[in-house]
Design a protein that fits this description.
The structure is a single chain. The protein has 381 residues and is of the alpha+beta class. It has three domains: 5-120, Butyryl-Coa Dehydrogenase, subunit A, domain 1; 125-223, Butyryl-CoA Dehydrogenase, subunit A, domain 2, CATH 2.40.110.10; 227-371, Butyryl-CoA Dehydrogenase, subunit A, domain 3. The chain is 52% helix and 16% strand. It has eleven helices and nine strands. The chain has helices at residues 5-26, 29-36, 44-52, 72-85, 91-103, 108-119, 226-261, 273-298, 302-330, 342-354, 359-375, and strands at 125-128, 144-148, 151-162, 169-176, 179-186, 192-197, 206-219, 263-264, 267-268.
């Protein structure tokens, strides 16, 4: 039975409050700055608390596999709060990508084998979609898979993989003689090389992976993974734009708070018309982006989700970049210093603008999706 709108809103508010209060303790600015300069990039104790005390890892996983059985609206709220706090963790890689890929693989034995460790936080997963943090495109898959008897081996390189150097389970989209397939690789597998990279957004870890005849386990049917991976990519895109909204909201809040307390010429700078206008423009961008995420997270049909996710990527990328930069400007000289957190949000804005497809890519994708719907015969779905 679907919850009534008021009940659903109350449940989402409860999730938001619990996550926000937890992150206020677990991810203050001092902790973010300490963790972002480590190679691992996250606190394992916090990671396990998120899994076992809050149940965040399995919030959108069906109950039959040990999850909470909620959906993307609840998971989007979690990602929004994590984006606001700039939480240093492999949550997007493990929960937004790896777990979703497993659930969408139609391989129940693989889910039963790998999901429990991902759900309880004892293992971290990631997903290599196309060798880079680009939008999903089957033609851009960089890893090849060859079969020798009952075994598969992977060859190729992936220049940018979220948390690729610390993940215990690496799911890989690879090309076989039958098409796009999904494979599981153990982090200790022979022939696998992992190199952490230094990137613009130091709060999120990325690695380069090389596969040299690496043994892998096939997940699902050989050559039939493209549809599940496309669905996973759109769900991960919704998670990413929810993060962007959270970060934009935090930038707006800190800018408004500073404008109220910063005194210039004997009055708070927030009383000046130019600052009022800038804050009002920031609010419009944040609320518009939030509406786009709400629509995308509530989409249930694959095509509707694809449309909504691309719209949200365009809206949220613009919102976060503009709001992060305006927040820095409102803070004045201090906002441009290394000691202030404003630059961390600008870095997050620039990196997420390009992740999973740039705004220009998604505008082109929207045009193609709309054109393809017009080309369908009347009455077809």
């Amino acid at each position: 039975m679907t919850p009534a709108p008021a009940q659903a809103a109350t449940e989402l508010d409860s999730v938001r409050t619990a996550v926000r209060e937890f992150l206020a303790r677990a991810s203050p600015s001092s902790t973010v700055r300490a963790l972002m300069d480590t190679e691992r990039g996250y606190d394992d104790t916090v990671w396990r608390q998120m899994a076992n005390e809050l149940g965040l890892h399995g919030i959108a996983v069906p109950e039959r596999w040990g999850g909470a059985g909620a959906g993307m609206p609840e998971l989007a709220v979690v990602f929004e709060e994590m984006g606001a706090a700039l939480l240093c963790s492999p949550f997007l890689a493990s929960v937004g990508l790896a777990l979703q890929a497993l659930v969408n693989s139609n391989d129940e034995s693989a889910v039963e084998e790998f999901a429990p460790a991902l759900l309880d936080g004892s293992s971290v997963g990631t997903l290599v979609l196309n060798g880079a943090l680009d939008a999903w495109d089957p033609s851009a898959v960089t890893i090849g898979a060859s079969r020798s008897g009952a075994d598969y081996r992977l060859d190729g390189s992936a220049p940018m993989v979220l948390d690729g150097h610390t993940a215990d389970l690496i799911l890989v989209a690879a090309i076989t003689a039958n098409g796009i397939s999904l494979f599981a690789v153990d982090a200790t597998a022979p022939g696998l090389e992992r190199e952490p990279l230094r990137t613009l957004d130091r709060t999120r870890k990325v690695a380069r992976l090389r596969f040299d005849h690496v043994p892998a386990r096939l997940i699902g049917a050989d050559g039939e993974a493209a549809a599940g991976l496309a669905r996973t990519a759109d769900l991960a895109l919704v998670a990413l734009v929810a993060e962007q909204v959270g970060a934009a909201r935090r930038c707006l809040d800190t800018a408004v708070a500073y404008a109220k307390e910063r005194i210039q010429f004997g009055r708070a700078i927030g009383s000046f018309q130019a600052i009022k206008h800038r804050c009002a423009d920031m609010l419009v961008l944040v609320e518009g982006a939030r509406s786009a995420v709400f629509h995308a997270s509530n989409a249930t049909d694959d095509r509707d989700r694809a449309l909504a996710a691309s719209v949200a990527k365009v809206a949220c990328s613009e919102a976060l970049l503009h709001v992060a930069l305006d927040s820095m400007r409102i803070h004045g000289g201090i906002g441009f210093t290394w000691e202030h957190d404003a630059h961390l949000y600008v870095r997050r804005a620039k990196s997420t603008e390009l992740m999973f497809g740039s705004p220009d890519h998604h505008l082109a994708r929207l045009a193609n999706l709309v054109a393809s719907s017009h080309d369908q015969p009347e009455g077809s779905s």
